[in-house]
């Protein structure tokens, strides 16, 4: 019966489409797993419904009785009794101790159930199987032991669930099923968010070893010296790779015909619920999807990283390896530059609307070219454009007749109905014309795509670095420079060049006078932007990084009998990251003057940049606060303390510890002021609860000079 329902829905959807045999084939071919999933789900639902008829009837009767006995006044009275002084124990009751007891008990139970028991189950199993040495060699004994315990718990719950279903224990079966779902979702989250990015990060590292002149032995030594840091960095690289791959898939969906990427989940689909998929789909489906994802992501890394490196080493032997060695005595920390590249350079390029439009335009141009070369234009982009052109060429009477025609699949409400019928499949669908020898054409399309990705990867790996090395050679000569400098410099130069060319091409039809006027305006805007950049991206990060070095880093890393060394370039690089974090926290925080000014600067943008407003409202106050934070402690330590006649050791102690001491004082003052405000609010709340009888709203009327009458001043009477 479930199969008949599904087939009937699909047949109705096909009958609503225009007469196109190829489109019917596509409906079946692009969604091979939809019917299977729906049949499985409906069979499970039927079994659950048969088991729970009596329970649902009893629950319905109890629920109806509870609804009749429910009283809203009792809930309001309970909410009024739960006040701050009662929760904190300020009214003399013991409710506060009861709350503390429940919190401690629940936390203990949570740790016992979700950490203690799985760990010991996994530990006993590993010791019993004799795998203790292998687990200890991984340097992550606790994590692996806990995961093994969760896996064994999941297997045990599956077996118990099957036995309970066999002996008709419905309540135990439901309870075991819920416990199994919790363990299953937890393990799948660990695999999807933890294991998969880690595999991608290690595979990226292994495929790029020749690019950095490294070996697997070097990676093994680094893992043994710092296993936690190594695993975290590889996981971070894998997450960045997965994120940008998903972003590119979303961009492809904007260009391609709906239905081409039917095998990939649409993350923008409002009906897409990953947790629900984890609950409903069986384990073998998740395992199959995980293996397929590993194969796809690994193949793309081989195609776009390993193979281009081999080609570059064969064609340009002297171009590789990249110079990315981490020197301990270097005046600049390359790790800070890597963070700067990941947090500033790449987001600045990829978040630009023009860069995304360029990439989207390139993808669309490639799709149109491949579609016409292989006669796959209808499959890749659809026939919507051709239908629009044909509709414009038809006479008016034909156009009037078409107003009552059935809309094309993929447009309007019919697309929504089609998406509802295809739950679990792609959102939206458009029919296409299927040419002759279609599988061969798809194979040629995949080959053409691989060649294009290979060429694009070769260009991205060589052109920015080559341009950056050539530009840096004028400044540093033949000295070796870290490739982050050259890559970032070349990337920005390439971006500015492409941007300038596109702007000039857009201005050419407007004439010479307009071009000169635009150049004048842009020159003035560039000068203003440079001034703002020097202040906000140069001076402020430098002062912020130096202050962070004096307050946090130097007291923790440098003993009192040694002299700290400061590197301005490194302080600036870290200051950029700190400034970005502080700006993000400020924009997410409450409304105050700094948030208002930053929002106004963002709203104005670069084209409407207000130099006077930025200097007066943002740069000057921030730089003044930072300079005072740097200079006042130094004046106290170097100018005032020696006048007191203290020893040299005491002077050194004051100079080295005055910055963290003042930070502690400022933090304590902030906490005290916050607590004072909170206690004032609590005092007012307690006073109003005890003595406030009522409030009355009085209209506010201004004094009228013409009438010469006086009105009652605004007031709010409290009795």
List keywords for this structure.
719 residues; mainly alpha; two-stranded antiparallel ribbon; 27 helices; 2 strands; globular; disordered N terminus; transmembrane helix; EC 2.3.2.27; ubiquitin protein ligase activity; transferase; membrane
Describe the fold and architecture.
With 719 residues, the protein is an all-alpha fold. It has a domain at 524-659. It is built from 27 helices and 2 strands. It has a two-stranded antiparallel ribbon with strand order 1-2. Helix 23 packs across helix 24 (568-588) and helix 23 (512-557) packs parallel to helix 26 (611-640). The radius of gyration is 34 Å and the shape is globular. The relative contact order is 0.05. Mean pLDDT is 77; it is low at 1-61, 63-67, 327-332, 388-427 and 706-719. Pfam families: MARCHF6_C.
SS strand fraction:
under 5%
Overall, the morphology is globular
The largest sheet has its strands arranged as: 1-2
Largest sheet composition = 2 strands, antiparallel
Q: Kindly state the percentage of residues in helix.
A: over 70%
On the 0 to 100 scale, the average pLDDT is 77
Q: Round the Cα radius of gyration to an integer and report it.
A: 34 Å
Low-confidence stretches: 1-61, 63-67, 327-332, 388-427, 706-719
> What's the tally of helices?
27
Structural class: mainly alpha
């Amino acid at each position: 019966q479930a199969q008949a329902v599904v087939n009937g829905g699909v047949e109705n959807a096909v009958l609503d489409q225009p007469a196109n045999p190829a489109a019917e084939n596509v409906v079946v071919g692009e969604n091979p797993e939809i019917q299977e999933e729906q049949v499985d789900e409906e069979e499970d639902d039927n079994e659950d419904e048969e088991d729970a008829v009596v329970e649902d009837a009893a629950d319905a009767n109890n629920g109806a009785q509870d609804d009749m006995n429910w009283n809203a006044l009792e809930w309001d009275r309970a909410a009024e009794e739960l006040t701050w002084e009662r929760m904190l124990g300020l009214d003399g009751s013991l409710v506060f101790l009861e709350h503390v007891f429940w919190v401690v008990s629940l936390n203990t139970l949570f740790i016992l159930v979700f950490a203690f028991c799985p760990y010991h189950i996994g530990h006993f199993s590993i010791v019993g199987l004799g795998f203790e040495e292998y687990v200890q060699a991984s340097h992550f004994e606790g994590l692996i032991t806990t995961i093994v315990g969760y896996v064994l718990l999941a297997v045990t719950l599956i077996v118990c669930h099957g036995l309970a279903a066999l002996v008709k224990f419905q309540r135990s079966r439901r309870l075991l099923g819920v416990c199994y779902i919790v363990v299953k979702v937890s393990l799948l989250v660990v695999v999807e968010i933890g294991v998969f990015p880690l595999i991608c990060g290690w595979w990226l590292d292994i495929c790029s070893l020749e690019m950095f002149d490294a070996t697997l032995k070097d990676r093994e030594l680094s893992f043994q010296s710092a296993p936690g840091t190594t695993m975290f960095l590889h996981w971070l690289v894998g997450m960045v790779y997965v994120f940008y791959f998903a972003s590119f898939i979303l961009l492809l969906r904007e260009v391609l015909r709906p239905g081409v990427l039917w095998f990939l989940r649409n993350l923008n689909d409002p009906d897409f619920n990953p947790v629900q998929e984890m609950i409903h789909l069986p384990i073998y489906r998740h395992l199959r999807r995980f293996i397929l994802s590993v194969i796809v992501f690994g193949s793309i890394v081989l195609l776009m990283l390993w193979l281009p490196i081999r080609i570059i080493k064969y064609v340009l032997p002297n171009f590789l390896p990249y110079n990315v060695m981490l020197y301990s005595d270097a005046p600049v920390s390359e790790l800070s530059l890597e963070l700067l590249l990941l947090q500033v350079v790449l987001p600045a390029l990829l978040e630009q609307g023009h860069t995304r439009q360029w990439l989207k335009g390139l993808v669309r141009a490639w799709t149109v070219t491949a579609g016409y070369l292989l006669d796959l234009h209808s499959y890749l982009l659809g026939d919507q454009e051709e239908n629009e052109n044909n509709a414009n060429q038809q006479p008016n009477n034909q156009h009037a007749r078409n107003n009552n025609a059935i809309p094309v699949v993929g447009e309007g409400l019919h697309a929504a109905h089609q998406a509802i019928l295809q739950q679990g499949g792609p959102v939206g669908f458009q029919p296409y014309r299927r040419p002759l020898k279609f599988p061969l054409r798809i194979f040629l399309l995949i080959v053409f795509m691989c060649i294009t990705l290979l060429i694009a990867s070769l260009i991205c790996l060589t052109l920015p670095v080559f341009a950056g090395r050539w530009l840096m050679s004028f400044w540093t000569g033949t000295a070796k420079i870290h490739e982050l400098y050259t890559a970032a410099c070349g990337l920005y130069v390439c971006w500015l060049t492409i941007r300038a060319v596109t702007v000039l091409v857009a201005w050419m039809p407007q004439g010479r006078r307009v071009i000169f006027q635009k150049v004048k305006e842009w020159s003035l805007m560039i000068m203003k932007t440079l001034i703002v950049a020097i202040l906000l991206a140069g001076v402020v990060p430098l002062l912020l990084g130096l202050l962070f070095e004096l307050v946090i880093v130097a007291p923790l890393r440098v003993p009192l009998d040694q002299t700290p060394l400061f590197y301005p370039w490194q302080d600036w690089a870290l200051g950029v990251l700190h400034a970005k974090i502080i700006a993000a926290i400020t924009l997410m925080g409450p409304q105050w003057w700094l948030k208002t000014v930053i929002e106004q600067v963002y709203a104005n943008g670069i084209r409407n940049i207000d130099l006077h407003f930025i200097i007066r409202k943002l740069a000057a106050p921030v730089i003044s606060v930072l300079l005072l934070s740097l200079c006042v402690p130094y004046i106290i330590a170097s100018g005032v303390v020696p006048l007191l006649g203290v020893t040299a050791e005491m002077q050194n102690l004051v100079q080295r510890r005055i910055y963290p001491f003042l930070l502690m004082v400022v933090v304590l003052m902030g906490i005290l002021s916050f607590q004072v405000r909170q206690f004032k609010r609590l005092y007012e709340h307690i006073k109003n609860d005890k003595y406030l009888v009522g409030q009355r709203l009085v209209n506010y009327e201004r004094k009228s000079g013409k009438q010469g009458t006086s009105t009652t001043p605004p007031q709010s009477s409290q009795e």
